[in-house]
Amino acid sequence: MTIRKMCAAALAAGLVACAGGPRAGTVESTVFSAERSSEHRGQDDLLTAGLGLGGLRAMVPPAFADPARPTAAELRRRAVWNNWRGIADLAPGGGYGELYGSLAAVPGREFHAYATVPGATHPHRVMLQLPDAFDTGRRCVVVTASSGSRGIYGSIAVAGAWGLPKGCAVAYTDKGAGTDYFDLDAQTGAAPDGTRAAEGGAPLAFVPDAPADATGVAFRHAYSKDNPEADWGRHVRQAAEFALQALDQALPSAAPFTFDNTRIIAVGISNGGGAVLRAAELEGDWLDAVVAGEPNVYAGDASGARSLYDYTTQAALLMPCAQLHLQDLPQPPLTAQVAPLWAARCAALAAAGLVDGADTAAQAASAHERMLAAGWTDGALRAGVLSTGFDLWRAVAATYASAYGRYGVGEHPCGFAFAAQSSDGRARVATAAEQAAWWSDASGIPPGGGVGLVDPTLAPPDFGFAGLRCLRALHDGDGADARRVQAGIAATRAALPREGLPVVVLHGIDDGLVPIAFSSAPYVAAAQAAGREVRFWQVHNAQHFDGFLGLPDYAARYVPLLPYVYRALDRVSAHLDGEGALPADAVIKTTPRGPGRALEAAHLAMP
Questions:
Q1: Considering only CA atoms, which of 365, 395, 381 is closest in space to residue 330?
Q2: Mean pLDDT, each 10-residue run in order, the chain (607 residues)
Q3: Which residue of 31, 301, 408, 478 is surrounded by the most CB atoms within 10 Å?
Q4: Beta bridge partners of 519
Q5: Residue 100 pLDDT
Q6: What gap in Å lies between CA 381 and CA 361, rounded to an integer?
Q7: CA–CA gap between residue 88 and residue 101 (Å, rounded)
Q8: Phi, psi at residue 275, to the nearest 5°?
Q9: Are 213 and 409 contacting, i.e. CB atoms less than 8 angstroms apart?
Q10: Most distant CA pair in the chain, distance
Q11: How many other C-beta atoms are found inside a 10 Å radius of the C-beta of residue 245?
Q12: CA-CA distance, 581 to 88, in Å (whole number)?
């Protein structure tokens, strides 16, 4: 407990007079619904669902006894498996559980509910993991938001892995995205425990406003019409409120739990990092500290700041061609297989007047030059090759265009939709087994989890080019749809964090998905110029996805970012205990481990 909180607690008890007084922040009147709880002990636990390191490393997910009707426990275990593997490098030699991180079993209880931010039409999920080792004398809650568009367990490898072994409760939100997919053909969605249920039965996590004849798959990030990113900070705040309420219920002899007597540290990476920075700007002295890794944060008018939609749609168009200009790209993707596709993109760009050059080499050089002029670096372009290979740029742009414009099912301005697909790419009805696995297996943005992206404009030779031109025009154009999307983007601009709030931002210098130059760097510069307590760690040889370090070429080139997130949390926690100053800004000179070598402490150059 910090000195300020000790003072507040004593003042509340009428024991002493202190300068300042208690914090202006108590649990708000948020109404939580569909509440449930579960115990996780013995062959199960909070951190790994009983899988341990060996089970998490398994190349196949935990099986369902009945693939069409998995139990809630089976879905939870598989969701934990997927979210660990999507975020952390657990491969042998990667250092997890040895150089950094913990996978020791943590017994305890979970509490789940739905919450809705004011003005929204759909709820988001919130969850509290309460370890049996929680110390009511040192009340600690770590609050977090899922990275990307992941489900409720999306930040378990970030916040859970640091907080639970230390006896902190960990509060989560899916921040209005998540994997609660609704099947428009079967009219089924995700129940509170993740199992499938028909509309009108269990209280479903997401039911879209859709025409009666709509087909395919709808998911909350694209089709809620709420533009959830605009409210990410409030999602985080409500998760913290739910944590205090659940603690009151779980530990009544130690109640009340309030923002005054409980330490609240917010942490997240990627979109989750952007969410906790948005929470940092909210009114009220309710947060004690924030740690944000590789945050998707849009600093508005700050020098160099670009919105996610801006640089994503640019990358979707230009990056495949620009990457042909670079040598020694990380593998996969396999250059020989993708080079013809990328060459077709170069030709399409040249025909549209978007790059210069009479042949592929000249066109690639022109695309590369334009990317550099827009603020990209060669390091970001190299690390972004996997996002190009996975067609991630197009998937993100299609989803966010729908979210920013608050479009419903069948209303996408570029015609994109989502559905299960046959081998030739045609939309089809999803099977019961596919539907059952969406909650545990999907990432929140198709393609993936058995759901594909449907583009009605596909045409040779560059099949996705017309759709990408349409998506980019929503950023650059001035039509009604463009203005609608641009208004949604403007609503995501971050403000400065609250004065006096300790904030540590860390980012990989080679991040190819959320480039540091467009996100963290302008945000930190603006915050520090305004006198905010923001520190900045810039990590050499780190890209966006620790989970990709299981690929040998990526492991050889890049260091993981999670060790620095955990270290920043350690430093911030010690500072709150009065055991040291906030860490200083740092540019961290790491050393890639090279091919076939295990990660060692010396490679990380940890501050």
A1: 381
A2: 42 33 49 97 97 97 98 98 98 97 97 97 98 97 98 98 98 98 98 96 96 97 98 98 98 98 98 98 97 98 97 98 96 88 97 98 98 98 95 97 98 98 92 98 93 95 96 98 98 98 98 98 98 98 98 98 98 97 97 97 96
A3: 408
A4: none
A5: 98
A6: 17
A7: 10
A8: -65, -40
A9: no
A10: 81
A11: 21
A12: 29
- The question of whether 270 is a catalytic residue gets the answer yes
Residues linked to residue 33 through DSSP beta bridges, in sequence order: 114
Q: Which residues of 507-517 are buried (b: 16+ CB within 10 A; e: fewer)?
A: bbbbbbbbbbb
Q: How many CB atoms lie within 10 A of CB 226?
A: 21
Q: Looking up tokens 């990667």, which residue turns up?
A: 94
Asked if residue 88 lies in contact with residue 100, where contact means CB atoms within 8 angstroms, the answer is no
Task: Name the amino acid, one letter, at 275.
Answer: A
At residue 13, the pLDDT reads 34
Cα–Cα dist 392/390, whole Å: 5
Sign of CA dihedral 255, 256, 260, 262: positive
Residue type, 514: V
Cβ count near 277 (within 10 Å): 31
Amino acid at 461: P
How far is it, in rounded angstroms, from Cα 82 to Cα 592? 27
Cα torsion 277, 281, 282, 285 to 10°: value is 100
List the structure tokens of 162: 């640091």
Q: Give me the catalytic one of 270, 307, 387, 520.
A: 270
Residue 490: count of CB within 10 angstroms of its CB: 13
First to last CA, the chain: 25
What does residue 294 show for φ and ψ, rounded to 5 degrees? 40, 50
The pLDDT of residue 18: 36
**Could you write out the DSSP letters of every residue in 110-148?**
EEEEEE--TT-SS-EEEEEEEETT--TTS-EEEEEE-ST
**Look-up of token digits 């007047």:** 353
Structure tokens at 314: 């640019």
Query: Helix %, strand %, coil % for the chain, to 5?
Result: 35, 15, 50
Q: How far apart are CA 449 and CA 452, in angstroms?
A: 8
- Radius of gyration over alpha carbons of the chain, in Å? 23
Ramachandran area for residue 126 (φ above 0: left; ψ -120 to 50: alpha; else beta): beta
Question: 3-state class of 149 per DSSP?
Answer: coil
C-alpha dist (Å) from residue 13 to 5, 8, 21, 261, 434: 12, 9, 12, 11, 55
